[in-house]
């Protein structure tokens, strides 16, 4: 693709406002997934047993009516009795008692709960069986609620986005590296070599993808890397067919014949003339491949064949949300929202790139 045509495509894409909006949405989603988990204030694996399936809210937890029940559960684990609770702003004064001296090491349960800070001992009886302590109350905000274990759903969705986007980008990279090379060589070779390479492609097409994944699970443990291998092993097939078709239409052009007449080898013609002139369909197809792979990974994870705990993806979260749809609909709505926005943006950006890089549109724009 010449610099003039590339500039024309860039200007055409710049005039496509829906495509630019889709690109901006993708950038925001990617940045949120990369940086967001460090800003939410919650680790993705951190469990808050006091806040299981909490609905989305802008208000902070624990609320006034949640402090005493949480302290009673902690007192039970500390094997002490909770005599009195007095809250003053962001601090709580507790009076604890027991039949025998209270081990101060048990107070570590307070900050470990995630709801309270480090305790300060204000008073202690002579025999150590009665304590008056003061602890700060931490403010916990769950913008998208929590899941069935009490984990922050916003953080989980952002971390899951890293995995889903990684799988989509890996498949696109595999399609570019394997599919472009395979299709260009097949189209340029022609004849029996082309026929043999296409029959091999047909055989790979005939293998059911889910059966292929199940077969891999027989020999290997399910996990992220297995999904990456399975997706990368089959998603280059469409790209190979696209590049082969483009190569067949280009190798009879005058500029290719001129290069061959000047002594350029087959490899040089492929690298310098054929592949650069197929970049338009390649980029558009690669952009549209990413949402398809993300959706495929979500389907595998929904069936339990994809990403496994402690890793997570949007598909895993959607599967968990579907099981808790009646009691906690936000568990399904949150990851599904991220997935829908990403898929729509990728598809719209792919359409925009396809139009911007289409030589027919470029000639029309140049003529005007």
TrEMBL record:
**The ABC transmembrane type-1 domain covers which part of the protein?**
161-350
Could you list the residue ranges that cross the membrane?
A: 20-39, 163-185, 205-234, 281-307, 328-346
Q: Which Pfam families match?
A: BPD_transp_1, OppC_N
Where mainly located? membrane
The listed locations are: Cell inner membrane; Cell membrane
What InterPro entries does the database record attribute to this sequence?
BP-dependent_transpt_permease (IPR050366), MetI-like (IPR000515), MetI-like_sf (IPR035906), OppC_N (IPR025966)
Swiss-Prot/TrEMBL keywords: Cell inner membrane, Cell membrane, Membrane, Peptide transport, Protein transport, Transmembrane, Transmembrane helix, Transport
Which membrane topology term applies here?
Multi-pass membrane protein
Belongs to which family? Belongs to the binding-protein-dependent transport system permease family. OppBC subfamily.
Kindly provide the name given to this protein in its UniProt entry.
Oligopeptide transport system permease protein OppC
